[in-house]
Each structure stands twice: as C-alpha cells, then as structure tokens.
Design brief:
The complex is a heteropentamer of chains A (about 350), B (about 400), C (about 160), D (about 130) and E (about 140). In chain B, a hairpin with a 2-residue loop joins strand 4 and strand 5. By secondary structure, chain B is an alpha+beta fold. Chain B has 15 helices and eight strands. With about 130 residues, chain D is of the alpha+beta class. The chains are: A mainly alpha (about 350), B alpha+beta (about 400), C alpha/beta (about 160), D alpha+beta (about 130), E alpha/beta (about 140).
Chain lengths: ~350, ~400, ~160, ~130, ~140
C-alpha cells in the first residue's frame, strides 16, 4: 500500500517523486528486495517439492519447515572466504556474477507486474518489450559461459562449451513458442498480450503446445535435469561454477533463482494471461501462476534423467523446433479464421 | 581438431573412491583413456603375511565395503580347505543366505548409482530407499549394516531364529514387488534408456579376450558364473539360472543385474525355508599344514579369486586376492574409447567399480596410450572457438519416443 | 570334460615338458613347467580347451626362487601353470601376445617382486606411489616395513 | 523395449501425498537389533590374562595390562592376578572377535554407536 | 547481531565434500545412504557438493595413503575458510585394520587437521548425522 500511496503522491508532486518512484521500483517492488525474497522462496518450493517427490522431507529445520534454507545458504556463502584462482582472469571472474545479477533483475522490471490496464502502464513498458525480454534472457547463458571460460579450469571450460552448445538447441524453439501467443494477440508488448488473453481466456487453450515447448526450453535455460549438462556433477564436477566460491557463488545462485522466477513470470505472462487485478491481486496472481510453473519444472526435474549433449541438441531440433513451428502455424491459421 | 586431456579424479564426484582417469578428448568424444590407480593402494597382501588366520578374516572383509562378505567368504572357504575342515551345514546355509542378501544390496546400490550417474536422482533415491530393507535384514542377522562378519572357520558366527526368518521372507516379498516395478516400468523411461542403451559397447569376443567377469561379461552374452560352473557352499542344490543379456551395453548390464536380483530373492526364500537343523559351526584348529589352495567365489561384481599358501604356522605364507573390478579394467578402457564425456561415469560405473578391492596391491596404466599430448590454455581456447563454429556431433543415437 | 581328460591330454601333448601335474581337489589342476615352455603351454591350453580367461597371476617368494602361478579358468576347471624363476636372475616371458588381458597382472610382478617381464607391451612403473624408493619390493620376504610412530594430535 | 515418456510420473505423484520414508533420527533414537555389535565392554573380574583377545584382535585395539594383584581371601598366599584393559575405540572395528575368542566370557558387546568426539584421546577407554 | 546471523547461517547450511583416500567403500556408501530418503541429511540443510570450492565440511574416510597425501593437502587448501574436517570411520581415525601396512600413513589427522572424529566400522548413517549434528551444536556454543 505504501507504494500505492507513493504512486498517487508522485502523480501530484511531479518529477521529484518520479525519481523516488523509480527507486522504489528498482529496489523494493518488483525490484531487488522483492525478487530476493521471492526467488529464495521459489528455491525452497523447488527443493521441497523435489524432495517430497523423492519420498524425503527436504530442508526442515531452518525456519518453519526449512523455509529460510536458501537465505541461510546465501548468507553463509556471503560470509565465506572468497578465492580467486591464480590462473583466472581476475577482472572478469569477479565482475561476471554482478553482471549476471544485474541483467536478470533488469529483466524482472519488464514483467507486467504493475499494469492495471493498458491505459496506465508503468515507466518501463513499451511496444516490443517481449523481444527485449527474450534477448536479455539470453545474456545469463552467456554469463555462465564466460564464467566458465574465465575460470580457466578444464571442467569449467568444458561446462562453458556445453552451455553455448545447448544455447543453439533451445533458444530458437523458445523464441518461436513465445512469439505465437504474441502473434495471436497482435502485439509485441507484454502488457497488451496479457490483456488480450484476459479478455478472451478461451484462446489460451490454443497455445497449449507452445506452453509445453516453452516450459521444456525454460528447463533447459535454467540448466536443470534433464538439461543440467553444463554442470553435471558426476561428469564435470561443478561445471561452470567449479572455481567459484563465497560471495561470487552466492550471487550466481541468486541469479539462477531470479532467472527461474523471471522465466516462469515470462511464461505466465504470455501463456497464462498475465497478472490482472492491480497491485495486491496482481501480486497474488503472479505468485500463484509462477508457483504452478515452478511445480511443473520440479516434477520434470524429478521424472527424468540427464541426457547427453548430442541428444539434447538432437531433441531440440527434432521435436521442440517443429512443435514450436506447428504452434506458430496453428496460430496463423486461427488468426485468419478469426478475421 | 586438436585433442586435449581431461583428468578425472583422484577426487571426483562420480567416483566415490580415488582413482585417476586421464581422458584424451576430441570435443566431447573420448579418443583415449588412461587409468592411474594407486591412490587406494594400502598393501593388504603384505599385511596379510604378518597377521594370523583369524585376523586375516577381518582384514579380507575390509578389502571392500560393498562386497565385504565375498572376500571374507572366499578366504574362509580357502582356509577351510587348507584345514581339511568340513563346515557345519546349517552354517553354510546361513553363509549363503548372507552372500545372496549382499548380492541384493550390491545390485540395488548399483542401480541407484547408475541412476545418479545418469542424473536421475529420483531413481537413485527410490532404489536406495528400498535397499534399506535389505540393510535392515543384514543388520538383524549379523549385527552390523555393512561388515557382517558372519563367516568363521567351520561355519557361521550367528544363528537365525524363526522371527528373523519371517522378517527375511517379508522383506523379500517387498523387494520383489519393487524390483518387478523397476524391471517393467523403470527401464521404460525414455531419457534413462537414451542414456544407457548403446553406451559402452563390449562385444562378446572382446569381453572374452579381455578377461571380463561378472555382469559385464554376462551382459555380453557369455553365461559364465562361478556359482554354476564351480559350485561352492550350497549353490549346487539351489535352484537358480544364470542371467545374460545380448545387448552388450550399459542397459544390458542393468537388465542382467535386475534379473539377478529376482533370482536372488528366489534363492533367499529357498534357503530360509530349507534351513537344516543342527550346529552352526565346528571347531577349527589355529595352525594350518603346509599346502596351497585356490578359492573362487562369484561376488556381485564377478569372479573373485583367492590363492592362499600356508606354511605350517598360524600365519599364511602368501595371500593373493584377485578382485573382480581389476579383471574388468581392461574391458573398461576398451568401452570408454569413442564414447562421450557424459558417458565416462556411466561406463565406469557399469562395471560396478570397487577400486578399493582392486587396489589392495595393483596399479595399472593402459598399454595403448602412447605418448601423452598436453595442450596449453591458449591452444585450448583456439580449439574451442573452432569447435563452436562447427555443428555439434551427432551420432546414430535416436530419441526413442 | 573332466579333470582326467584335461590331465591326460596335457600329458599326451606336452609329454616331457611337463615336470609335474597334480590334481589336489576337484576342478583344480596344477601343472609345473619350465620357464622356457610357458608360452607353449599357455597357447596349448588356449587352443585346446579354450582357457582364454586368465584369472590372475600370483608371485610367491620361495627364498631361492620366485614362483609364478598363472591361474586359468573356464567353465569346467581351474588350471594353474607353475613356473620357477631364480632370485638371482628373475626373468619371465610376457604372455600378453596370447592373452591380452594379462597385462594388468604382469604389471604387478615387477613392482611387487622385481621380476622382469620380457617383451611386456608397456613397461612403465605403475604400482606403488610416486617417489617409492628403487629396489624396494614390498612382497619379497626380506623386505620389512618400519612403522613410523603415530602422533595423536590434541592434548590428553 | 517400448518406452513411455515420463514413465515414473504416476509413481512420483503418488509419493507427493505419501509420508516421507525419513526417520526423525536425532530427535528420536533408532532401535538397533538386540545383538547389535557396538563397543566391547570388559569385566576385569573374569579376566585371566590369557591374551588371546590381544592376539586375535585384527585392529590392535585391545591392550591388557597387569595391575597389582589383589589378595584372594580364600587363599591368601596365592594373590589373584588382576588385569585392566585399555580399549582404543578409535581403532576398534566392532567385529566382536574378542567376545568369541575369550575363554571366560570377559567381554560383552553393548549397543552404543553414537560416540563422536572432538579429541581422539577421548576415545581411549580404560576398564578397571 | 550481524555475527549471530552469520553464525546461524553457517550452522544451518553446512555443505559437505566427501573425500575418500583409500577407504574400503563401506563408510562411503553409508555417507551416501545418509543422504537418501531414510536418513535425509538435507533436512539440516546439508548438501553434498562436488567441488571443494563450494564445501564447508570435508568428510574424510579411509586411512591416508601415501599416494593420496599431497592431494589431501591440496583439496584441504582449496576449501574456503571457515572449514572443518570430520574423520569418518575407524580407518580415518587411526588406520584401523590397515595399521602397519607399508602404503598408509595412519589416520587422516596425520596429514590434515581434524575437528571431529566419528568412530565406527563402518559408520552407520545415523552416526554420521549424529556426528555432524554434534559438531554443529558445539559450534553454536562457541
């Protein structure tokens, strides 16, 4: 509510308050503070669901039912000794975690969390922001690759190589799958897409194939089983993060968590009609919808085994890309009929 | 495309034991493999010459933690032959029962590890949860979860009562259901199959010429099993079949092990139901006449062989232990070649390596490695850039939908 | 195929090359040959009875001599070929050409006993840790190991 | 062999609604079987000092030390030999061979297994 | 306040690295068994990590073999501070049945400093939990 009041005040007071508003956006909601709390919560949900599917409890004694576990991990890593390997490129090695964190937080800004309607949009929404989000979401992958590369450890390098190889596989299907609802909605603006489907919820069923393609691609982007090839611990130890420790590792873990939130937020916006209902209801909508997606991701993680890198690329091009194209065709045909 | 080397081990998460594998890679494809052991070498054979027969019983048991009964029982049978001792029949039944229970625990463990290496942690968790059933049975029989110490010269150390019998039968029933589930449903999971099938090919001829043993050999279609070929303990009167598979890959090895599990349940039930009455052990002498003996045993991983030479004192003159893992190394190197990096742990796990067994006195390096080729980082970078410009290699493996 | 079959056939074919042949237990046959006749015997066993599975090679320190035992196994029995090699000149031929899987076990002999295996495909030192002293062969009877004192950290 | 996508799904979903198989271990002690092999316990009254246990112990964990003799009230001229035992629990492998070897039943195994310490000297147990 | 927060986080999130140097495998499988559903060490926030850089507690099994000595020290140095070493199993404590073998140096504490000792041959999974739990409890008091 504080935000809401500030928002109203800002309208009256003009540009001074606009700065404050922007700061609030950046640091409180939907910025860093909210993302930090919510992403750690999501990690807890993910770990807990994964453990329960395996007939275990998962984190239990840190806070209530282990809910503070990711935060404890984060703080502990912050307080640990920070080692930069001698051979590593020191500047890049230290800068990359911060870059990564910045990028994913930036992407979160573009999610239409704050949009009441198309009329009153927030400061950062503009036509074509879907493309920007899709583009920015590619960057964390690049960061992972560079992180592996600049560790100059064999396993990290191998992990980095695998990150890029995988990128070729899932990026195109993901983009195609995300674009098809946009084409149906006739807009490249996330808020407008969400609005379009809020008005016509039945049309969401058309995109069901695309939804699943996007879900699988998101799993690959987040590098989780069955696509955790870049840091498959039984093969290449810690993969890209082998040499990272302390604060930098903490940032990377936080980054991966936020990426998960942002990715599921993107899918929820595009395929599940966004988050209508203003500040409070929008937030509740956001939480419910992203949690559904995170639950699906956890189940996927539990039922599959890791596949090989060649199988992964093979799979993307043989199944995911054609399915995404099929989805696109369906959408185009349907659009013709609707007109 | 240039080659570069990846060292795996001695401390590596896929290998719970220290071993050093040096892989020469071409992209993601393994060109050559080189093994360096010795990290786990403790010198047990020398130690055995300084200890008396009873102490050696526990020493051999601790050659390996997973197949602990195998080594102890193999040694025990050998010494009994040296002592010219006829062990008590009830004791033999109990021994065999523990041996089969150990096979069950080892194979379940292997299934879980295979799942873990393939990144399928759920499968790993389930099999290990089921494994706890058999661990509990072993604990109530012997008083320890892993090192059972059930063998002694002349029979078994502990008896089984009716309550324990009932518990064993119940446990077998639970495990049989679970194993059937894994056989029918578990191995139809496509991502799992995709990881296992076609990996680590070892043809029948290769398997025979490289002296492979155990499930590795049987998965290549060679029905060789010491329990059938050279029956010891009470195996001669037990109903069981030797399980084989013809696929010659990791999937075949998994199937062989699951089938063996079902055979083992059958054997355990038979042993419990037909347990003879009588003493569990006979008294054994401390000193042993001068003689020599070869004792063979089918451990969960394959043939286990002990050569014991006595010299008339209470200490052996020479104890030679050949663990199954060692026999499978030569085959492993052959299997690793032309595989993918991702397959290293799987192939290596497929022989169910027990490095501690193999290394009680031996180190080995592949003969075919030739000179080592090392790359500097700059070269590696160049190589990698080249690698990205090309399309990733695709082999004949298809996505089995 | 029984033990007698194997024994008779070995006796018939190799005749005087066999020094001693014993059958102490069912399925266990010990054949003693000269060092020079080892390769021939191994080849004969492999071709005649398909003894392709070499279980292991054992070395034993017998004071004056080293005894080397080659344990072969097939479905029917275990045949052990026993050869002696003098301590002063411990040399044996490699059987890797006939049985490729023997390489592992032949590695063990030079390190543990100092027995020289001739024509071995790979003669790198392989056993024992890096920096092990030259000329120390652990399984020789005259080699003794002095245990270093154990220091338990922490106060009593 | 026919493959099914996500063949494990029904089983896994079933487990979501099942109680986990986890024991509440550090808060509730686990039951061990009655003849569990824990730590050996020595009864000095029964020991005759034959040293068979020392000879048979595979891990050099037992030291039997002779302490000053006690006067035997029945035969004052023949003092009864008295022994104490030093158990190195950091070496003990809990095999219970000492129980088996001992001719006078001096040893029994208890069921203690939670014996973690911070100082190795604490693991040396003296039975008088 | 800040110090307390850090201590709390350290206690609640001990990540372990499993290190085997010549053990007989029994302790190793029992440690892995401690992570599986029946004992589930993750309840206490314990995760088994693959690389020494991520770990807080080294769980060492097996007697220190001669060949492994340098690697043990190297891995110990790679773990960022604060770090703890827990020796698990009788052989990691003293060398156990291998005492006097030519290729071992004795327990792990002959090579790297050890903070807690968990005896047992092999160690039961619940003893591992107990040992880690007592180590954490004792750190809480400090």
């Amino acid at each position: 509510m504080v935000n809401r009041i500030l928002y109203e005040k800002a309208k009256i007071n003009g540009c001074n308050m606009a700065v404050l508003k922007t700061l609030l956006y950046l640091f409180v909601y939907p910025g860093i503070l909210f993302l930090f709390v919510y992403s750690t919560f999501c990690e807890w949900v993910d770990r807990k669901v994964y453990a329960r599917l395996q007939n275990r409890y998962g984190p239990l004694h840190t806070g209530r039912a282990g809910i503070l576990q990711p935060i404890a991990d984060f703080i502990k890593l912050l307080s640990k000794e920070d080692i930069v390997p001698e051979k590593a490129d020191k500047g890049m090695f230290s800068a990359l975690p911060v870059f990564g964190l910045t990028i994913v937080t930036l992407v979160a800004m573009y999610l239409p969390l704050w949009h009441y309607s198309v009329g009153t949009v927030s400061f950062n929404s503009f036509p074509g922001d879907l493309i920007v989000v899709a583009y920015l979401l590619t960057l964390p992958t690049l960061i992972f690759f560079l992180a592996g590369w600049h560790s100059s450890n064999l396993f990290s390098t191998l992990g980095g190589a695998r990150v890029l190889t995988m990128l070729f596989g899932y990026e195109v299907p993901l983009l195609l799958a995300v674009l098809s609802p946009a084409i149906l909605a006739d807009s490249w603006r996330l808020a407008e897409i969400a609005n379009f489907y809020q008005a016509r919820p039945l049309l969401l069923l058309v995109n069901i194939i695309g939804f699943f393609v996007a879900l699988i691609c998101l799993q690959a982007k987040l590098e989780r089983v069955p696509f955790d090839i870049p840091h498959a611990e039984t093969e290449i130890v810690g993969g890209t993060f082998t040499e990272y420790s302390g604060k930098k590792l903490a940032f990377f873990r936080l980054m991966a968590d936020i990426e998960m939130v942002v990715g599921s937020g993107l899918i929820a916006t595009v395929f599940m009609a966004g988050f209508p209902g203003g500040l409070i209801w929008g937030l509740i909508n956001f939480i419910i919808k992203t949690l559904i997606i995170i639950f699906l991701l956890s189940v996927m993680r539990a039922v599959t085994s890791r596949i090989r890198i060649d199988q992964m690329v093979n799979f993307s091009w043989r199944w995911l890309a054609p399915l995404a194209v099929l989805q696109l065709l369906i959408v185009i045909i349907l659009k013709g009929i609707l007109k | 495309m240039a080659e570069f080397q990846v060292p795996i081990g001695p401390q590596h998460p896929a290998l719970k034991e220290p071993i050093s594998l040096r892989m020469t890679l071409d992209g993601e494809v393994i060109k050559d493999a080189d093994l360096k052991l010795g990290y786990n070498h403790r010198g047990i054979e020398k130690l055995a010459e300084e200890r008396n027969y009873i102490q050696n019983l526990y020493l051999t048991e601790r050659i390996c933690g997973i197949c602990s009964n195998s080594h102890a029982m193999c040694y025990c049978q050998g010494v009994e032959k040296l002592m010219e001792l006829e062990p008590a029949r009830r004791g033999l039944f109990i021994r065999t029962l523990v041996a089969e229970l150990e096979r069950i625990h080892s194979h379940l463990l292997w299934l879980g590890i295979a799942g873990h290496e393939a990144g399928f942690d759920t499968f790993f968790m389930y099999t290990w949860r089921d494994r706890e059933v058999v661990m509990d049975l072993l604990e109530i029989i012997s008083g320890n979860r892993v090192h059972y110490s059930i063998n002694t010269f002349g029979g078994a150390r502990r008896d089984i009562d009716d309550l324990q019998k009932q518990k064993i039968l119940d446990g077998m029933e639970v495990l049989r259901n679970r194993t059937n589930y894994y056989l029918n449903i578990g191995v139809t999971e496509p991502t799992f199959i995709a990881r296992l099938s076609g990996v680590g090919k070892l043809t029948k001829e290769q398997a025979v010429s490289l002296c492979a043993v155990g499930p590795t050999l049987r998965a290549s279609g060679v029905p060789r099993d010491v329990r059938k070929d050279d029956p010891y303990a009470v195996y001669a009167e037990l109903p069981f079949e030797v399980c084989t598979a013809d696929s010659c890959d990791v999937l075949g090895r998994a199937v062989v092990r699951i089938k063996e599990l079902i055979e083992s349940y059958k054997m355990c039930e038979y042993l419990v139901k037909n347990l003879p009455v009588g003493e569990i052990k006979v008294k054994a002498p401390r000193r042993v006449k001068e003689n020599e003996v070869i004792s063979r045993y089918e451990a969960p991983r394959g043939e286990n062989m002990h050569y014991i030479k006595s010299n008339g004192t209470d200490k052996p003159e020479r104890l030679k232990v050949r663990a199954p893992t060692l026999a499978n190394y030569a085959a492993t190197i052959e299997m690793l070649k032309h595989g993918f990096v991702a397959d290293i742990p799987l192939i290596f796990a497929a022989i169910d390596p027990c490095i501690c067994c193999a290394e009680r006195s031996v180190t080995l390096i592949d003969s075919k490695t030739g000179e080592e080729k090392r790359m500097f980082f700059s070269q590696l970078r160049k190589w990698s850039i080249e690698y990205y410009t090309k399309k990733p290699k695709l082999t004949g493996v298809t996505w089995p939908f | 195929m029984t033990d007698e079959n194997i024994i008779n056939k070995i006796k018939d074919t190799l005749q005087s090359k066999v020094i001693e042949i014993t059958n102490p237990a069912p399925r266990r046959i010990f054949v003693k040959v000269n060092r020079e006749n080892l390769l021939e015997t191994v080849k004969f066993l492999k071709e005649q009875f398909s003894f392709t599975h070499l279980s292991t090679i054992t070395g034993v320190d017998k004071g004056e001599n080293f005894e080397v035992l080659y344990h072969f196994a097939n479905e029917f029995s275990v045949v052990t070929i026993r050869i002696l090699t003098p301590r002063a000149e411990p040399k044996i031929p490699s059987i890797c050409e006939i049985i490729p899987g023997a390489i592992l076990y032949e590695r063990e002999l030079p390190d543990m006993f100092g027995i020289i295996v001739e024509n071995i495909p790979d003669s790198r030192t392989l056993l024992l840790p890096d920096g092990w002293p030259q000329g120390a062969y652990p399984l020789r009877k005259d080699w003794k190991y002095e245990r270093p004192p154990e220091i338990i950290p922490g106060e009593e | 062999m026919k493959t099914k996508f996500a063949a494990f799904l029904p089983e896994i979903i079933r487990h979501l609604f099942k109680r986990p198989a986890t024991v509440r271990y550090p808060f509730e002690k686990l039951q061990v079987p009655k003849d569990f092999r824990g730590t050996p316990v020595f009864d000095s009254a029964k020991c005759i000092g034959c040293m068979i246990c020392v000879r048979d112990c595979p891990a050099e964990a037992i030291d039997i030390i002779r302490v000053e003799d006690v006067i035997n009230p029945d035969a004052p001229d023949k003092p009864k030999k008295k022994f104490k035992m030093l158990l190195h629990n950091d070496r003990c492998i809990h095999c219970a061979q000492c129980v088996e070897s001992c001719p006078t039943d001096t040893y029994i195994m208890n069921t203690d297994y939670e014996i973690a310490v911070f100082n190795r000297h604490r693991l040396k147990i003296e039975y008088k | 306040m800040f110090e307390r927060l850090i201590r709390w986080s350290r206690l609640k999130s001990p990540w372990i690295l499993h290190l085997n140097s010549g053990a007989c495998n029994a302790c190793d499988i029992e440690i892995v068994a401690a992570l599986t559903p029946r004992f589930d060490l993750e309840r206490f926030g314990v995760l088994l990590k693959a690389t020494p850089r991520h770990a807080d507690i080294i769980i060492a099994t097996g007697p220190a073999t001669r060949q492994m000595k340098d690697r043990l020290i190297r891995i110990y140095e790679q773990v960022p501070e604060p770090k703890f070493v827990v020796a698990v199993g009788s052989c990691a404590l003293s060398g156990d049945v291998y005492r006097g073998a030519y290729n071992i140096l004795g327990g792990i504490d002959q090579v790297i400093p050890v903070d807690a000792y968990i005896p047992g041959c092999p160690v039961r999974p619940d003893t591992v939990i107990n040992g880690v739990y007592t180590l954490l409890k004792s750190l809480e008091k400090k």
